[in-house]
Every structure is written in C-alpha cells, then in structure tokens.
Input
Amino acid sequence: MAKTEEYSRIDNELFAVKVTDNVEISTGVFLISWRQKVAFIPGQVVKVAIDRIQPPRIYSVCCGNLEEKISILFNIKEEGYLTPRLAAAIPGDELLVSNPYGNFHGDHSPAFWIATGTGIAPFYSMFQSGLSDHKILIHGVRYLNQFYFEDELEWAMGDNYTRCCSREESCNVFHGRIKNYLLETNHFPKDYKYYLCGKSLMVVEVRDLLISKGIPYENIFAEIYF
Amino acid sequence: MKDQLFGKDLNELQEISLALGLPKFAGKQLAGWLYKKEISSIDEMSNLSKKARELLNEKFEFGISAPSKVQVSLDGTKKYLFPTSQNKFIETAMIPDDDRKTVCVSTQVGCKMGCLFCMTGKQGFQGQLTAGEIVNQIRSIKEYGDVSNIVYMGMGEPFDNLEAVLKSLDILTSEWGYAMSPRRITVSSIGIIPAMIRFLNESEAHLAISLHTPFDEERRKLMPVQIAYPIAEVIREIKGWDFGRQRRVSFEYILFKGLNDTPLHIRELVKLLSGIRCRINLIRFHPVPGTPLESPDEETINNFRDHLNAKDIITTIRASRGQDIYAACGLLSTKELITNS
Output
C-alpha cells in the first residue's frame, strides 16, 4: 500500500543522541541516560529505538525536569529486540529518541501515585521535579529487589511511601498486592487525584476499586505498560 | 508436547517437508489438507505416503480444537468459547445477518490495554494467541464454510499480537490458504501506530480504529493508550496513506451518555476526520460491571448519526446482537475463568 511523504516525516521524529550513563540498578533493570536539554513535564514519555529497523518503544521519563539529561528505566525482555541492546549500550553509543510528549502530567495537587514494577518511573520523575508534596506513593512489586529508588523515596517521603511485595516478606513492607493494601487501609479521599502506572491488571483492578469507593473516574489517570 | 501443523504458513510447511526428507511440494499438499479440506487428522492426508504421515505424526498434531461451549441468542447470534492452554478461555462470536455470516475472532487471551468500558480488560493479559488459534476460531465452528466476513474485534488488541495476526491474515487470504478476499476481513485496533503501519504495509484487510471521543483529555480517561499513541497522531498517520477505492478505514465510536454524545463532539469529529474517506460505526454501550458509564437514549444516538451524516461522514448505528448471551466481549470468558478458578 502506498505511503505519502507525511509518513516519512513522522518517521523522522526520532533523532540521534549519545548515551551518557547506563546503570543496572537491580538485576536486569537499567537506568539509561542521554544528554538532552529539553523542557518536559514530569510524567511524559519518550520514544526510544536502537536503529531504524525496528519501531521505537515508549518509555516514561525517569529523572527530574531540571536535569540536562533524560533517563528511562527499563527491564530486559530476553526475547525482545530493543532491551537487550539497550542494556549493552555504553557511554558514547548512539540511540534514536523523540522529544518527550504525552499528558500523564504531575502537578502540586494532592494525589495518590500508584505503581507496579518499572511503572515507578513517572512518579520518580515527578518526585525528582519537586512534586512530591501532598502525595502518597504506593509501589507494588513481586520481589524485594524491585523497589527501585527506595532509599531516596523512603528518606524523602517517609510514611507517605508504601511498599507492597506479593512474593517476599520484609519489615515495613506490606505483604500482598496493591489492591489488597488499598482494601485494608480503606482510605480513599474523594478530593485527591489518583495516578496509576504499570501492568494493566493492576491498573484495571485498582481503577475498579476506586470507582466502587466513589472516586469519580475523571480523577483517575492511568498509564499502562504494554 | 507436539507442535501443531494448523496455523503454519506455506514456507513453514515446505521447511517441515524438507526437514522430514519429503519433497518440497509436499508443503503445498499439506497446506491444501490443512486449509482447503475438512479433515481433522494427519492420517486423512491421503495423497501423502504412509511413511510421510508416520513421520508427520511423530512430530506434529493436526492442531484444530473444538469449542467447549456455545450459547445461542434469540436473534441467532452464537458465542463460542474455546479453551486455551493454562485453563484460560477465548470467545468467538458468529453473527448471522440475512445471507451473511460474520465471525468475530479474538487475538489475545485477555488484554493489556485497560479501556474503562471493556470487560475483557478486567481479566488483565493472560497470553497471546497463535495464528493457528486465531484461524481455528473460524475453522472449528459449525458455520465454517458459510462464513462471509471476518472481523478481528473479539478479545485482545490485534496490533499487540501483530505477528500472529499478520500470519493468520496470510493463511486466510493466500491462494494456498483459504483464499478469502481481504476485503471481507476487518482488523480493529485502538491505534498502536508502529504496528498499524506494518499492518497497512503487509495486509490488504480493512482497518477499523476505536475512536470513542475526538478529545485528548477524554480519550485518555477512557483509553490509557491515548498517552502513548494519541488519536490525533493515529489519524495523522492514516491520512498519510492512500487507501485507494477498495480498502476501507472506519472508526468505531461507542456512545456514552453525557460524555461523548454532544454537538461539540460532532464538530470535533468532523474536524478530526476531514480529508479521510471513511465511515463511523456508532455502537450502543452495554454496561459492564464496575464501569460508571451508561448508554444514551435512542433519540440521542439517532441524532448523533443524523448530524454526522449531514456533515458528509457516512455514519451507521451498529445493531446490538446477542445481548441475551453476554455478547459483549469478555463477559462469558471472564465468567468461565472465575468458575474454573
């Protein structure tokens, strides 16, 4: 089927940048950065590709908006095309990226930030951008080593930072899934916004729970990783 | 566990033939047995030698499977339930309409997209279907042979399982396969742009896009995918392709009371779709548990259609079918999943 010049223009929205840092912050999970002086709103996403053979994938920006770099958090999908190559990238290697875009925007109003796994990324960006006032962060993972940035978050957010782990137990960590934690606490202020980010099942379950507790769906903002 | 022949394309069947020491043309013979004849076992492939059949039987099974349940609506619509591996279920609907029989196939077990109005999404994502499992939904129903149209609008997001979807389309439309016209097949997506581009390039089937509101903020609340692939970008991409006279692009629009059924939405839809030769299918919303959305009344739906038609966008209201048998996708399989767990 024929395509027009418009298509080529869209394809060219990706541009080359050089990797400045690539750190394995937990087993199989990397925080990769590149220099990019661009204004962005915490919560936005970028497209990332390693070449023009495969289409880019979309990642939440995972750094503060006053830094002169962009970082993303990703875990290696062994069978995938992009992430094993991203994991192998070293400073100086080239990536193809887009400018940040999207409207999963954080602000200063009171909110719950609810994430699973690497879905913590947009909230870490909001946190690093000074938006953690009046926020309650709930992070759900399977294993304890998946609480990325937990030292920083615990130190800065204190009791407003809750960790839920479904497959391992530890002190100060709720043993179970986020939905179970929310059901136990039964604390659903109606004047808060609720930001959800991560796997679809968590997003759908928690969204349904919030709606059943009387939270207007207009106050629920969801970003799903797929 | 044996590999399955059903769902392999011609290249794969030729490779299998060569690997088993059979002539390459045996691949085409296999395709003929799999996709053109109504047999269900390797032993029935009578133009292959006994030795060849033995070799095939050692490594492969035929690979079709019957539905475990069927429900029949008062209006003749049928909903088939197919079991998949790991005790999960997928749904297939067969919708009769005069002399047409349309089959609505699933492409995933569950779905990752989490749309607010969708029952399938409430299962979360359970797994991908293979091309064979997609085509089997047509091959293994009673109406096989009378199917006039196929729509990829069942459980799952087709463009999130693109390889299997493209392969299934290849099997359905190739001369060595079912040799159906791609113009009798429609693939519906919420608009995952990179996959949509590949689909437009590699298939000739019709495209349907789930639109549901022209406004960014509203769509984001209904469909989380809007953050990654905004509808404006999806439309911009579609405008960049020449659909010609035969291939069709349409937009699915579920009407929600007081949310996306206003004159403002009509105005914005007209603006958004200007320059595209397309049609809009309006769909009545059938409430699913835990969803705070409602369908508008018939008068509002009819007015919405009439106003869009008056603005030269061909707009139809899709007839609601099979309401008495949980025809809204995902309800039956979710019920079955809960029963089994």
Remarks:
- Chain B has a mean pLDDT of 93.
- The interface with chain A takes residues 111-114, 116, 121-125, 160, 194-195, 197-198, 200-201, 204, 216-217, 220-221, 224-225, 227-228, 230, 233, 236-237, 239-244, 247, 290-292 of chain B (CB under 8 Å).
- Residues 298-310 of chain B form the longest helix (13 residues).
- Chain B has two domains: 3-61, 69-340.
